[in-house]
Design brief:
Distance between the termini: 66 Å
Helix content: 25-40%
Number of helices: 9
CATH class of the largest domain: Alpha Beta
Largest sheet: 6 strands, mixed
CATH architecture of the largest domain: 2-Layer Sandwich
Length: about 290
């Protein structure tokens, strides 16, 4: 039985790559009652639910999800806030959907989101950066954005970078990826004609622009892109290669240093804990 993967908007549900990839659920739903019923049904059917959402503060959808989890008093719902642009978040959800049918436990799958996100190269080609507040923008770039036909290539993840398109190179992955491209206005082929070949991607797919992309990037003059691993066997090997731990709070398996379900951090190793305690103890006088 696959683990349910949920997203906060239907435009974050990408088409499946194969017949084995299950669909994603959309949560929350229009009303609180529908959200409660929908989440309860997911828990009953799948056992565990991993809900991805933007890491931005003040999102009403996130508040609704927290309310739903609190009312249901369920410890089987993981709410994962991820600092990725909308298309990158959709790609991460697709990867988790691919892995949800594998033999990973719910805790490992939830905590793998942070690992997988590190391997997603998410950015956009922008016609203006005057309202871009997600990554640092220099005064020079702000000034240049007023120049007619100026275009900026921006990478938000895994390392922020901003360059003039066609003048400087945008750092890309050193491993094989598949690229998703979503065009706003005006359309441009720079991403598919220049960036994709430079990054040596193994395929390009065009998808609709997520509704939240214009707000995230601060303009509707954009072409958003996200490149990441797409072969489920490679994704499986990546997650399997990480040492597993047991959460001391909820008892679920996890990888990394934080539980995806209860958000508890792993305690420091015994040696490190002893050193912390020793430093905290008052020293005896002479």
């Amino acid at each position: 039985m696959p683990i349910a993967i949920a997203v906060t908007s239907p435009d974050l549900v990408l088409p499946p790559l194969d017949r084995q990839t299950p669909p994603a659920a959309v949560q929350p739903q229009p009303t609180l009652e529908q959200s409660l019923n929908g989440m309860h049904a997911l828990i009953e059917q799948y056992g565990y639910v991993i809900a991805l959402h933007s890491g931005a503060d003040g999102d009403p959808a996130v508040q609704r999800l927290r309310t739903v989890r609190s009312v249901l008093e369920s410890d089987r719902v993981a709410l994962l806030g991820v600092d990725l642009p909308p298309l990158g978040l959709a790609l991460l959800a697709q990867q988790l959907r691919q892995l949800s049918v594998c033999d990973f436990s719910p805790g490992v799958l939830a905590s793998s989101a942070r690992l997988l996100a590190h391997y997603i190269y998410a950015g956009a080609l922008l016609g203006s950066v005057t309202r871009l507040d997600r990554i640092p923008v220099s005064l020079t770039s702000h000034a240049k954005s007023w120049v007619p036909s100026a275009q900026f290539a921006v990478l938000a993840n895994p390392r922020p970078q901003l360059v003039r398109a066609g003048h400087e190179d945008l750092s890309g992955p050193e491993f094989g990826t598949r690229m998703l491209v979503a065009a706003g206005q005006p359309p441009s082929d720079w991403v598919t004609a220049s960036l994709a070949p430079a990054w040596r991607v193994q395929g390009v797919a065009t998808v609709p622009l997520p509704e939240d992309s214009t707000r995230w990037w601060g303009t509707n003059r954009l072409v958003e892109f996200a490149a990441g691993l797409h072969d489920v066997s490679v994704l499986y090997q990546l997650v399997s290669s990480v040492r597993r731990e047991v959460c001391h709070w909820c008892g679920l398996e996890l990888i990394g240093d934080r539980c995806g379900f209860c958000s508890a951090s792993l305690p420091p190793p015994p040696d490190a804990q002893s050193a912390i305690t020793a430093r905290a103890l008052p020293r005896g006088g002479t």
